[in-house]
Amino acid sequence: MTAFDSIQNDYNPPRFKWTKRVAWCSLGLMVLILALWGTATIFAQRRLDHLIASYRAAGEPVFAEDLEVFKGIPDDENAATYYGQAEEAYIWPASFPIDLSVHDLIRAADSQEPGKYAAEIERFINTNALTIELLKKGANCDRVAWQDTFTNPLAPTGMGDPLAARRLGQLLSTAMGAFHSKRRDCDMLDLLYAQVRIAKQRTSMSGSLLDHLVTTSISGLGCVWVENIGSKMLVGGWVDDGLHCRNRMRQIILELSNEVAFRDSFHAALIGERVIFLDIYQALRDGKPMNPIFSTAPRSYALMIRPIIVSHCRRILQYVDQVIEVSRCTQYPRVSSELNKKTGPRDWVGLSGFLADFITSPSYNATMTVEYTRIAKRRMAALALAIRMFELDHGHRPETLEELVPSYFGVIPSDPFAEGGNPVQFNPRAASPVLYCVGPDGVDDGGRYGPRESDNASHSGFDLLFFLDGDRPRSNP
After folding, report:
1. Residue pLDDT, tens place only, 220-237
2. Which of 303, 283, 277 is nearest to 295 (CA)?
3. Would you state the torsion angle of the CA atoms of residues 362, 365, 366, 367, taken in this order, to the nearest 10 degrees?
């Protein structure tokens, strides 16, 4: 070897030394990042698994398949069988004008617009005569079992269209108006009973807050009907089959007053929300497409942020757990106070905050207000029917609600919005006699209300009213 070759072999410029150092440091940094990522992933998953184990220990559903409950009830004794057949038989006549809605028919049917759409109402009812009979059969069943198969909580194949049940309730509202206009009030009460029974029996469906809200909205349709028509029912007194009408009214009062099934349904629906959130995050964690943005993201993206996804999932579930606990309260003031103390994972920033806001940012304040408003409406509707029964028997309305006890009503219900469980209020001597609750603000305004253009009456800052003469102010279309 020559001296030149020796010098060339020993030649190692400084830039090559720094390149090696940078390479080794980069490799070390990558190993450190991987170690931190692995540790964070394991730690986050263990904490989530511990939370899931607590649900299992409590016997609560965790994943979609846990919501599947099948009961062996013969089809001819199962109300769900008839309701399913009714949904299939329901028809909206194709010949109706494109701008005509079922709400137009309902408004016309309850005599707000006498004679308007009379032909359309008649055709709608006749076309769905089989649907109405199936609903009445379902209402008379004592047992119900919904055969729900959840392949994914976001798309429950066994539930079908959750709004289909509301369409059935709207059909009954239209038919009730037509029967009332023909003075067939006993038939009308049969349909009202079927309507409140649909709402009651659908509460056994589990796994969807949307379905619970649809269910309670069907009950709300019945309450609206009682408010609009209650004082006009049986204007000639008890008819020849008055015993049947009296029994039907008592049955409807009992159905509206029984809140156990609705509370159980609300609790089950919130647990179902937890299942849905867990399923969303599990799918996102595994890189499955969830929406147009994330459907194009590579699986490696989900792998990179897995610790954040798992940690955020646990925090969301804990927040829903807090909401479930709060929902057990029976009075809205305490619910509102406790819920305002609960906060979801809003304090995170960056990518975690993006996940919270874009994918799952649950807020249940409005849901709670809707839930307790519907509870108040059901209580007032039940009282309104009892008042009407008293009036039919005595020729005048009671001066106080206490006169209804015990012949027409068990115990005067409390106002769910009032502090201390104060009862629902009754103002029989007002220009428009009303039952009322104090409303979400908790302030008793003596039954006042404020008009607004977009609705019949505003309850923001005012009381929640139930007009006994059906003279609720209505805005112009």
Report:
1. 999 999 998 889 888 888
2. 283
3. 70
Residue 54: inside a domain, yes or no? no
**Residue 240: partners with Cβ closer than 8 Å, 6 or more residues away:** none
Alpha helices in 342-457 (DSSP H): 351-358, 365-394
| CA-based nearest residue to 256, from 223, 286, 213 | 223
Alpha helices in 149-240 (DSSP H): 164-181, 185-202, 209-229
**Average of per-residue pLDDT across 133-144:** 93
pLDDT of residue 189: 94
Pair 279, 305 in one domain:
yes
Contact 359, 290 (CB under 8 A): yes
Integer angstrom CA distances of residue 319 from 180, 226, 341, 345: 48, 38, 11, 8
Instruction: Tell me the C-alpha distance between 372 and 349, whole Å.
Output: 34
* DSSP run (H or E) holding 138: helix 129-139
Lowest mean pLDDT among 67-71, 222-226, 232-236, 243-247: 67-71
Per DSSP, the residues of 298-321 read -HHHHHHTHHHHHHHHHHHHHHHH
pLDDT per residue as tens digits for the range 176-221: 988 988 888 999 999 999 999 998 888 877 667 888 888 888 989 9
Residue 42 lies in a domain: no
Nearest CA to 103 among 166, 147, 193, 52? 166
Q: What DSSP letter does each residue of 77-130 carry, written as one string?
A: GBHHHHHHHHHHH----TTS-TT--HHHHHHHHTTSSTTTTHHHHHHHHHHTHH
Cβ pair 440, 332 in contact under 8 A: yes
* Residue 286 exposure: Cα atoms within 13 Å on the Cβ side: 6
Q: Are residues 285 and 187 in the same domain?
A: no
Same domain, 163 and 203: yes
Same domain? For 135 and 106 the reply is yes
Alpha helices by DSSP H, 145-184:
164-181
Q: Identify which of 301, 390, 313 has the alpha carbon closest to the alpha carbon of residue 348.
A: 313
Q: Enter the tokens of residue 271.
A: 């647990």
Domain that holds residue 474: 368-477
Residue showing tokens 């009379």: 118
Residue 10 lies in a domain: no
Given a contact cutoff of 8 angstroms between Cβ atoms, the answer to whether 344 and 319 are in contact is yes
pTM: 0.84
